[in-house]
Structures are given as structure tokens and as C-alpha cells.
Amino acid sequence: MAKIYPDSKKFVDMKMKYSPNDTLAKFDLFMSDFKEKKPTREDVQHFVELNFEAEGQEFEDWRPEDWVEHPKFLDNIQDRDFQRWAKKLNHIWTTLGRKMKDEVKSHQEHYSIIWIPNPVIVPGGRFREFYYWDSYWILQGLMLSEMHHTARGILENFLYIVEKYGYIPNGGRIYYLARSQPPLLIPMVNMYYEFTRDATFIQQNLPTLEKEFDYWMTNHSKVVHLDGKNYTLAVYGDRSQGPRPESYSEDVESSNIFKEQNKKEAYYSELKAAAESGWDFSSRWFITNATNKGNLTNIKTRSIVPVDLNAMIYWNAVLLADFNNLFGNAEKARYYSDIAEQWIEATKAVLWHEEIGSWLDYDLHNQVKRDYFYPTNISPLWTGCYDKSEKDSIVRNVLKYLQNKKIQYPGGVPSSVEHTGEQWDYPNAWPPLQHMMIVGLNNTGDEYAVRLAYELAESWVRSNYKAFKEKDAMYEKYDSTVFGVGGGGGEYEIQLGFGWSNGVIMDLLYRYSDVLTVDDPSLLLTSSVQEAKVSSSGISSITTALIALLVSLSAGFIG
């Protein structure tokens, strides 16, 4: 391979200057000059420069028309430093907007990008197109920023794509078409409805939402045999051949360990299934002797039943039942409610483990639970995928589980405790996983779970703030072991922007607007005590009593 660019994605994002047929003919002519030898790297680069334009040519300058400089949610943020920060994050939306040129629609065959009718907010960095599950947290921020028109446009893009392809691909490129990402379109539409109360939008698009759900039920369901019963649950997968185009050289090189082509193809499919999960890559998908040890060549994503995917399938079914009830479609509402109940039963039977105190992914190949910590283990709390009559017991067990795992790190909850060098493992902490945990724990209403949710939010927000203060940027991921530092690892350099990071922080600043502070109040009070002792030792007993009162009041306000 010539590997003329460090990042394989650069080439597949370029625009062809000529039609696909003409470009292939030019390539055949080019290769005819090298019958006795291979073309050099410089030869290949020259061919590319003659026949392709630089990446990013699809877009024209665009500033969201509904962007407002000072959305109302900012006024609720009591800490002035955080308020100023949130205002800067709000401004980032103006840099992440992308609108396609008219030429893309009329000459789609020249581009790898999928044409969509409305502008989008992209994640940032090398990610110049929409990504499915990123958009859920991007919409969290857009709705708070009062950019309802932009948000609706993004949803209309997704609905257009479902009508065209039957599902939403991983991202907005044709090379992503054979896989999807975590199914969050229906929750996104629900989020839009909760902010706007636009029931007509749901009613007009309900058949399309049901089509998206049917895709997941039809193409991702697996029957699990356990204790003499059959349960249906969902897994990630892939429907294409060959390496990932956007990571072509990386996949080819890592596949060299496999000598037979069918094993290479199976390996490529496992990689693409992991990409569909959003977790590309992690020990979460490794299977070696029924454990999560090994390296990327031990990846077996398609043989693992993921907790979070099934929690989302349940959520989708519940929301479709709610939507149908909203419009008096009682029979359809019962249909989706029945699916939701089946998913609760299956999730409890296969994935919940009372003795451990958590849900766990399931290894279909070895028919065993995967007893390893990942933040998604508790994602059923986020979507409500559990028997509500057992909530108190479940929450109590989950809290013990989290306490035993010692998940609270300076820079956030790590994606795992496995040191593999993969980006979805230790020590990286990812915004969507923090949000799932925080919202899930808070949703229970349990006093201790709510308190833990606040502590996780406080730590995450402060760490992100420190990183922003130092680099004037939001990172795609962060280092859980160091306060205020971006994460690393994986196949590409650290990315800035960043869509879902902005959305998560905005939502947490909104949820905890009256209690989150840049500085720890207890530390400030301790500092005041020391100063008081130095300057007024004669009234130490009064000062101590006053500080004790202030600490008690602060604890009351914050807790």
C-alpha cells in the first residue's frame, strides 16, 4: 500500500474530479505503465492529485440562522465562570455547522458524502459529516441553545435517510452504509417533542420511526437459549465485505495475522460491528478463552449481547408505544408495549446478575456473562429498562457494585479498567458514557444514587472546564486519571470541537445550574478558617462555630 496520507479517511473523503467510470479508466491506464514493477508512493500521490480534489469540498460557509448569542438557559447558571463558559460553548455551534453545496445534489456520484436536504452540526475535527449517535448529545445542546430549527433540520435529514435506505448509517458517507450506530433517532425525536411540544412533527413521521425500529428488530435480533428458555435480544453486526474504507490501511495491516481470506473477512466484519457500536475499539469486544483479554485480533463483537443496545431497544419500544397512544393508535401502542415488556424480561434473565449487582454483557459463543466493568453496564437505569417494582433493590445493588469498582477518578469514569491502548478502554473517559451514568442514577430518585450522580457531574464538569481554560477547546474524550486533560489512544489523533462534549456539558450545567461551582465550597471555607485563625486567634471559638454553621448550610444547599 502506498499509504500517501497518515489518515486513511482523508483519501475516501476527497471529491472525484471526473465520473466514477472515467476515474476507473484513468486508473487502469495509470497501472498499465507498471506491469513490471509497482508504482512508487510518489506515483500514486501524483495520480490522486490529478484526479481528486482535497477533502471538505462538499461544503459552503454556513452559520446557523437560529443561533442566538445568549440563550435563556445561561441565566439559570449561578456560577458566573460556568455561565461565561457555557456562553463560549454556545458559540462553538457556529463553527460546527455544515451546509452542502448545491453541486453535491446534482453530482452525487463525485462525492463519498451522502446528500441530505438540511445543514447539520458535525462532531468536529476529522469528522466532517453527521454521525448517528453523536447527534443525540449534539441535540441536547442545540435544544438548550434554542436552535430548534437547526435541530429539526437534523431530524428531517435522518428521516429522509430512513426513507431512502431503511435505516440510518453509521455516518454521512457512502462507505458507512453497511452498518448503523446505536439507535437513538426515536429518543432524539422525543427530546425535540419535550422541548417544542410539536406533536404534529411526530404524527407526520411516525411511520418512518417505526421503519427504523423494524430495521433493528429484523437485522440485529438474536435468540439466546438460557435455562431452558429462549429470549430475543439485540447484537451489533455488519453487512459488507472488506476493510473499512476510512481505516483501510490499518485494517489490512492488522489482518495480516490471518492467512486465510475467509478469516480476514470475518475479522473485518467484527471490526465494523464494533464501529457500529460506537466503541471502536475496546476490550469490551475481545473474547479470548471466554475473557476480555487479548488484542484487536481477538475481537468478536457479533458474539456479544451488549447491555446498552438492549436498553436502547427497550426505550425505542416504549417511546413508540407512547407516540401511538398520543394519537389514539391503541392496537399499535399495545404491540410496542408488548415488545418493551419482552425486552425487560429478556434483559433481566440474560443480562442482570443479582449476586454482582449489575447488568453485564453476555458472551453468546461461550454462553457466559462478561463480568467486567464498563459504564454501560448500568445503562438500563438511563432508559428505564427494568422492572419498576424491583427498583429499590436494583438501585441498592448497583450502588454497591459501583462502590466496589471505585469508579470515581479525577477526570471522569473510565470506559473500562483494562489497559489495552484502545481508545474505548482505560484511561479514557467519554462524554456520552458519563451522561448515561449521571442521568441514569439521577432518574432513579434514590437519595444516594442522586448524590452520586451529582458527584460524577461535578467532577466531569470541573475537569472539562479546566481543560477548556488551558486549551480553549473541548475534546472528543478525556483522560480519567488526570484532572482537565484530553484523552488519547486509538487510530487517529485527538480531535477537538466537539459536538457531544459540548452537548453533555450544556445539559449538566442546565441540570445542576443552581449548585455547580467552579471551586469546591468546602475548600474555600477551609481556606477562610485558616485565614481567620492567623488574623483573629482571640475569637477562634466564635469563628469555628460560624464556619461549622456555614459548612452545614452549604451541605444543605448542595446536597
Give the overall shape, derived from the CA principal axes: globular
Rg calc: 25 Å
Overall mean confidence score, pLDDT:
93
Helix content: 40-55%
What portion of residues belong to β-strands? 5-15%
Stretches with pLDDT under 50, minimum 5 residues: 524-559
User: Which sequence of strands runs across the widest sheet?
Assistant: 3-4-5
Structural class: mainly alpha
What is the distance, rounded to the nearest whole angstrom, between the alpha carbons of the first and last residues?
59 Å
User: Count the helices. How many?
Assistant: 20
Protein name: Trehalase
GO biological process, one term: trehalose catabolic process
Organism: Dendroctonus ponderosae (Mountain pine beetle)
Pfam families: Trehalase (PF01204)
Main traits of this protein?
559 residues; mainly alpha; three-stranded antiparallel sheet; 14 strands; 51% helix; globular; disordered C terminus; Glyco_hydro_37; EC 3.2.1.28; Trehalase; hydrolase
What does this structure look like?
The protein is mainly alpha-helical and 559 residues long. Among the domains are: 8-53, no CATH class; 521-558, no CATH class. 51% of the residues lie in helices and 7% in strands. Helix 12 runs antiparallel to helix 13. The chain is globular. The termini are far apart. The model is unreliable at 524-559 (pLDDT under 50).
